[in-house]
Specification:
heterodimer, A: alpha/beta, nine-stranded mixed sheet, 16 strands, about 30% strand, globular, B: alpha/beta, seven-stranded parallel sheet, six-stranded parallel sheet, 32 helices
Chain lengths: ~260, ~850
């Protein structure tokens, strides 16, 4: 089942072949894209989470010269999506920069690219734990959370029923799906009737299994994961995770860095 | 010459010894001011031969300051040698000072050693690198007369060897008169080893001394009384025979090939141990204290047997070992000789050893190995060129020592054999990498670690750089390990992290010779309690695989292809080969047998090429690439020395086309770059070169610590800077694991029109050993997405469409299952596994 998109996207683009999945939250029709972004057609809004821009230079400043191309790569992945969905409103769900000084470290070329991508759109920077301050010298509004219609956008989801209909990031969710040749693990969206957890979009971002306590705490009754594929999403029913959520009392709510 | 000076001659005579010819030859080389390489079998008095010239020199001309540096690949070996050296020094009243310097040396002694070094210092390559990075290295090593490198065969051709070779080049600069001594077991390429030892990378510069061979070892094959297993490498069926053999000998070392196998064999022997013989366990994942305890008990003669892995391969003196039992195929003649040499540390008596093959194929392999031993043919590959990642580490270490000029350092490092062919371009690019990352995009100028002054000298920018170097020093990259601790009790050792991730609380596993129950993971360790019920699992370790050498593969093929030679083989093996003939067919002498069959949800293709592992590795890349194009959905492959096995999501068809001659035309670069082989190489290279933080056991699981996934970096770098020095180093390293295309070409030409394809409904007898071999490679094609779609559709079908995703999430009413944990080590593409490091 595909979400109908207007034709006429530039050809020769990998995104063109992608099939997004429609999803309803609080009566609003949303589309999950296999690239790991969420589109809200009624508001022409595109949400993208955990870009972690300038993670490379963050490491370089500490003596690890990891390749400086992460910002370039992340923006290159974002560009065709903006072309495809042509959003009026662009919402970054937090941790857009790897650290508070990240925006200031943007190299001139990447800064120009980013500005160009933001131009002519309403831009909301939801603040995250990595980037608790508004990004320096970039257009857009920085907020702790954003409420639009029935939906609330925040960086880190709040467990329980009081969170509202929530879209969040922070955890870099990934899930494993059993196949006849063994399990396949992919970054994923995690959803239930109350919330949608978005995968991390940045080039240097890894993942946390949805069965880990911090994610499980958001989805004690389980839900549905959508694993990212090359051209489409793969849907996976996830059972209750209360037993895992119980472990939460001992675990700080923070994505761990296992690898 | 021919004699020893006093008091050495008297000391020898008092023991009823006579100096051996090779000991005298080493002395003569030293007197002539030559560097030397001694090649001698185990038990040849090798170490004494290496030290005699130093002891004599120090006796004639006693002087303060460091005189001789001894470097060994094992910390324990350095400690052991120190002990063995102190006795003669004391007995002859030489008064020479001997000390060790390893990672375990206490800080106060380390500081004192720098100011007031002993005359003889025993150390490891890592500790030497560290010493050479210190600003006062010149004072410490300036007086050096000799460096003795033990177990050269185990170092040359490895990254640790690359590092040591670079260190020796530096030592030669600090102490120009210094001579080098290499001590090596019998090797297939003595000239290459001599060049490795040489000051100028030329074999002629080194005097080659060979100890005459001792008595030929007495080798026998032992088979179980019951049925000989089809597959498996554990050899447990033969434990009653092994136990019986233990009882007949004084002290036995039972060598096995993997740590998991060590655990299982140890358990099995203890179940049989009605006589309560003292049998111990020794492998590299046990704690140091535990290993030392076993080693001490062994040396004190308190043990009857030790079940050991390669952790006991190298030449520590264990006192009297009467018998060696090798369980599982020996995998290489040189390795077998080394292990067998542990029995009877005297050259004039034959070493006794029993080979215990674990399956039918291994019987053939053992037979082939014995044949090679009898013919005196040693196998092994010549050392490969040095790694640029090691060079990067060395450059930084040298900058920490003192400012240098690039021209001088280039001249210096190219005198080390592994880097003799290093181009100036590669050197300069590696230097640039150390300075600021060396990226085409010059983004890190302000973070640079080194700077150049107006005379072109290179300096370290901050003191922080040296601290970071010390954290990252060394070339051994461990897979992430977790400590195992008994609840309320001691630490037992370490297991690989992925193994722990497959355990649920309450699961059993076998470790450190005990049955353990997994309780929980706390921040520093895996907490276990004794006991547990049900079938226990055994931790496997990625690094435990031993590749078979090509020479043995050739011999095995020869035996298989001549049915009249089967008479040399025991009856169960003959029966196995007959069964193969019945179920499928035997690999023809000309042409190629290819079998395809389903197995555990996958399709397997096994090609019996017998071209050796390197050729099969290359062929595996080519073949899976073509399978991808043909829509077979290849998932991975395994190259052994005998066969290439590939597995896929869908059945392989048109085998003739798969192996057609135009296979060589497949575009490989992208395909290979995506493979687990290159990703693994990159991870190691990036770590050694200092791009990634080195794993420090125990420190890892703090949770908050920033880590970066090597795979994500690899993907980004490949796309944006494909000619970066680390990617060139990765490709070069991978190329060493492949063979030249020419060899594949001639194979394809030879088998053209002679491919025997057998489509079977299950694995053939001959294929079984390949299915359980370690060393699998993964490829990244479209199969994963196809499998996900299939699994999703299956759920939909099974639930009658109730799970059909309709656009509204009415999840409460749906039967749902939790996601199953992955099956690591089996089918989890390594690059996915590594996609963990979150921000």
């Amino acid at each position: 089942m595909t979400f109908p998109f207007p034709a006429g996207f530039p050809s020769g683009n990998a995104v063109e072949a992608m099939i997004s999945a429609p999803l309803h939250l609080a009566g609003e029709r949303l589309a999950l894209d296999p690239a790991g972004v969420l589109f809200w057609p009624a508001r022409k809004l595109l949400a993208v989470s955990d870009l972690h821009l300038e993670k490379g230079s963050h490491f370089a400043a500490r003596g690890r010269f990891v390749p400086p191309y992460d910002t370039r790569e992340t923006l290159a992945r974002l560009t065709p999506l903006l072309r495809r969905y042509a959003p009026r409103h662009l919402v970054f769900l937090g941790d857009s920069f790897h650290d508070a000084a990240g925006a200031a470290r943007l190299p001139p070329t990447e800064r120009a690219t980013l500005r160009q991508l933001l131009e002519g759109r309403e831009v909301t920077w939801v603040l995250g734990n990595h980037d608790p301050l508004p990004p320096e010298a970039l257009p857009g509004e920085a907020v702790e959370e954003l409420r639009l219609g029935p939906l609330v956008f925040r960086h880190q989801g709040i467990p329980g029923n009081g969170a509202g209909f929530e879209l969040s990031g922070h955890f870099h969710p990934k899930a494993s799906m059993a196949t006849r040749c063994g399990a396949v693990t992919r970054p994923c969206f995690m959803t239930d009737a109350r919330r949608i957890l978005l995968p991390a979009f940045g080039a240097y971002t890894g993942g946390l299994a949805i069965t880990e306590a911090p994610v499980a705490a958001l989805f004690p009754r389980g839900g549905r994961a959508f694993l990212l594929g090359k051209e489409r999403l793969f849907s996976l029913a996830v059972g209750p995770m209360k037993h895992l959520a119980a472990a939460l009392s001992r675990t700080p709510v923070e994505p761990t860095s296992p690898a | 010459m021919g004699t020893l000076p006093e008091p050495f001659a008297r000391w020898f005579a008092a023991r009823g010894w006579r100096p051996r010819p090779h000991q005298l030859a080493m002395l003569e080389a030293a007197e002539a001011g030559r560097s030397a390489l001694l090649i001698a079998p185990t038990g040849g008095g090798k170490t004494l031969a290496g030290f005699l010239p130093s002891l004599i020199d120090l006796h004639r001309d006693p002087r303060l300051g460091l005189h001789t540096l001894y470097v060994s690949p094992l910390k324990a070996l350095a400690v052991d040698i120190a002990r063995n050296l102190l006795a003669p020094i004391e007995e002859m009243g030489l008064g020479a000072t001997v000390e060790t310097r390893t990672g375990d040396t206490p800080a106060n002694r380390r500081a004192r050693q720098r100011v007031q070094p002993p005359q003889i210092l025993l150390t490891t390559p890592e500790s030497l690198t560290l010493l050479l990075s210190l600003p006062d290295a010149g004072e410490m090593f300036g007086s050096l007369a000799r460096v003795v490198v033990d177990e050269v065969h185990a170092l040359a051709g490895t990254k640790r060897g690359d590092q040591l070779a670079l260190c020796m080049a530096r030592l030669s600069k600090l102490a120009p008169g210094m001579r080098r001594v290499g001590l090596s077991a019998t090797v297939a390429h003595p000239e290459a080893i001599a060049a490795w030892v040489a000051e100028d990378a030329r074999a002629e510069s080194v005097r080659l001394v060979r100890a005459e061979g001792g008595a030929a070892p007495a080798l026998d094959i032992v088979l179980p009384a019951g049925r000989l297993p089809w597959g498996g490498h554990m050899g447990l069926a033969s434990m009653p025979e092994v136990y019986a053999a233990l009882k007949t000998a004084g002290v036995t070392i039972v060598f096995v090939n993997t740590r998991a196998q060590a655990e299982l064999c140890f358990q099995a022997l203890w179940r049989l141990n009605d006589d309560n013989l003292p049998i111990a366990l020794h492998h590299g994942s046990l704690t140091v204290e535990q290993r030392r305890k076993v080693e001490a008990a062994m040396a004190a003669g308190k043990l009857r047997a030790v079940v050991a892995t390669a952790s006991l391969d190298l030449g520590i003196d264990w006192g009297a070992v009467d018998q060696v039992i090798q369980v599982g195929a020996p995998k290489g003649v040189a390795r077998l000789l080394q292990r067998v040499g542990r029995a009877n540390h005297r050259m004039d008596e034959p070493s006794r050893a029993l080979l215990v093959p674990a399956n039918r194929f291994e019987v053939v392999e053992c037979r082939a190995a014995i044949e090679a031993v009898v013919e005196g043919q040693v196998d092994g590959e010549p050392p490969r060129p040095g790694g640029l990642d090691v060079l990067a580490q060395h450059i930084l270490a040298m900058a920490c020592h003192a400012p240098f000029h690039p021209d001088d350092l280039y001249a210096e490092v190219t005198r080390a054999a592994p880097f003799a062919a290093l181009t100036r371009r590669d050197f300069d690019d590696t230097l640039r990498f150390v300075e600021d990352g060396g990226y085409a995009l010059t983004a890190y100028e302000r973070f640079r670690k080194l700077f150049r002054d107006s005379e072109g000298m290179i300096h370290v920018r901050t003191a922080q750089v040296a601290r970071q170097l010390r954290m990252n020093l060394g070339t051994i990259v461990e897979t992430p390990l977790l400590k195992v601790r008994l609840r309320g009790g001691p630490m037992l050792g370490e297991v690989e992290e992925w193994f722990v991730s497959t355990l649920q609380p309450g699961d059993n596993f076998m470790f450190a010779g005990q049955l353990l129950r997994y309780e929980r993971l706390d921040p520093t360790a895996v907490i276990v309690s004794p006991g547990g019920e049900g079938e226990p699992r055994v931790p496997a370790y990625g690094g435990s695989k031993l590749p078979l050498t090509t020479d043995l593969a050739r011999r095995v093929r020869a035996i298989l292809s001549e049915p009249r030679r089967w008479r040399e083989l025991p009856p169960p093996v003959q029966e196995w080969l007959r069964l193969q003939r019945h179920a499928s067919e035997l690999p023809p002498r000309e042409g190629l047998l290819v079998e395809t069959f389903p197995h555990r949800g996958r399709w397997f293709l096994v090609a019996y090429c017998f071209e050796g592992r390197l050729a099969h590795q290359t062929l595996g890349m080519l073949l899976t690439r073509r399978m991808e194009r043909m829509g077979h959905g290849p998932l991975g492959f395994l190259a052994t020395d005998y066969v290439l096995a590939a597995w896929s999501a869908f059945p392989p068809e048109d085998v003739d086309h798969l192996f057609a001659e135009d296979l060589l035309g497949e575009e490989l670069e992208e395909w290979m770059a995506e493979s687990s082989m290159l990703r693994r190489s990159f991870r190691n290279i990036a770590t050694i070169a200092g791009l990634l933080e080195k794993h420090h056991p125990g420190q890892e699981k703090s949770g908050r610590q920033m880590t970066m996934s090597a795979d994500l970096i690899y993907d980004v770098l490949r796309k944006h800077d494909p000619q970066h020095i680390l990617l060139r180093a990765t490709r070069a390293e991978a190329a060493a694991g492949l063979t030249d295309i020419g060899r594949i070409g001639s194979l394809l030409a030879r088998i053209k029109g002679r491919i025997r394809h057998r489509a079977l409904d299950r694995a053939s007898p001959l294929a079984v050993p390949a299915l359980i071999e370690e060393g699998r490679e993964w490829v990244a094609g479209s199969a994963e997405d196809a499998l996900l779609a299939e699994a999703e559709a299956l759920v939909e079908e099974a639930t009658g469409g109730a799970e059909h995703f309709t656009g509204t999430l009415g999840l409460g009413a749906l039967p749902s299952t939790p996601p199953r944990p992955a099956e690591p080590g089996r089918r989890r593409a390594p690059h996915r596994r590594a996609r963990l490091g979150a921000g």
